[in-house]
Amino acid sequence: MYQTIIYQNRPVKGRLADKSPRTYFVREATGLVKSLTWFDVMIVGLAYFSIAVASFLIFGLGSYLFPGSNMVILVSVIGLILDIPIMIAYGMFSSVMPRSGGDYVYISRTFVPSLGFAASVVFWLYGLTFAGGQNAYFTVSFGLAPYLGAIGAVGGNSGLVSFAQSITQPVPLVAVGTIMLIVLFVLMLVPTAVLHRVLFVSFILAFVGYPVLFVGTLAFASHGQFVTDFNNHVASLGLNTSYDGIVASAQKAGANLAPVTLGATLAALPLAYATLGVPNSGVYFGGEVKRSSRQVPLGLIACLLVIAGSVAAMGYLIYNVFGYNFIAATSYLSNTGGYTLPVAPYVNYFLAIIYPNAAFNWFMLISVLAWQVIVMALIGLVATRILFAWSFDRLVPSAMSEISQRFHTPVKGAVVVTVVCWVFLVATVYNFLGSYVNLVFAQAALYLLTMIAATVFPLMKKDLFNQTSNWATRKVGGLPLMSVFGGIGAAVLLMNFYFLFTDPAVSGYSLTSFLIIVATYIVFIALYFVVKAQRKRQGIDLSYVFAEIPPE
User: What secondary structure does DSSP assign to 102-130, as a single string?
Assistant: First the structure.
């Protein structure tokens, strides 16, 4: 069933010394099939943001952690402006090196391989497999439970409300999350041609719900209508509160319902990167995209524009129909105590109050779950392709780059990813916010290294840079445009680090989590040299591997 690739374990100095350095790769071709398009690149990039779950999370959590911040301005204006040069730099790297592996390939071919390996391990652990566990958690806590609770609350079904509350407890959370990880495993197994169809269908279901129907429904609603509907809803539940009463209770409890300012909005930049990240996921499977030198950059930019447009439309209506202070007040009470409603204060609950049609809300739940299926596909694709790239470069066992003859996917790598994701699912269930900050740092650190690499690659690695001749190698006044956009991207990410480390709302939760990531860098830089020495004893010099771009 499987095509087995075995390391050349005996000394090869005499027999291979006169051959191409490509001999030192696991094999001459990856075995991966080019069947994806720019549309797939866009979809998986959107998955990193997950428009549905992000809409539940960033508006409430943003106002709680960063009083006076405006997520519409942050994501759709500031985020768009700041991310464009980063996406262009990634697009240029993917055009110069259209291979699967993404940041790992870029950093290891630009700087020393040990740094590329360690940085990609940190991202694989805390930004992918941890994210896989997180996403299984998110599916229940920010998707399934809130929507079941909302449908039950507005429909008078107390049993459904109780069930929704029960599945947010640790043991049920792990059980339902495990089901999501089984979905992840299946998505990693299927051929990319089948995955293309799964992504397309899931995207239609997801996008029609969030943002299309969400925006379309709220566009015909008013703030006054929501206040009336909300007051009627809490009265039907027998609660002694109201729309204005909740805002007053939050202020009395100490909520800072500050007016929106640019400074507060900029300070929330790490939160935007925790959910928005950089929609660069397509570069990790660049070797499986048809005409990747153009298709990958097109997908990256399309993704960024769709995210910005969706958040702008949804956020404008959320703030104007539900009310900025109301969103901030309910989030504050939910996080500090004093919140008395039976369902978490996410925007899907408020949408169900203003439009309680059961069929509509069940479809919106399906939309949320479809977004989560896409997220799982993203995590599986990226995590297995990084494993694949390490194995192809002989840094981890060759089993991770074995390709199933039936599925044309790395099946053993899929098993490893699923198991590690499950471990992190359990960790996330018991320590959500601390692991969330870990994800921000892991992402930002890797992206910063890649942007620095993009800046210097055309200057330090001229032979590799000049191997291709396309839009990515253009120069202005003798300076490569790739260096220009890489430098701007590096400056943006340094600003993100500034807010990450100076604002206690983000960096103050756990110094330990930061030190764990630093320690991981140190351990895996050292491990690289251990592996290099072992390969040297086998007659394989890894210096040849990293002297050129991997084969297709």
Answer: THHHHHHHHS-HHHHHHHHHHIIIIIIIH
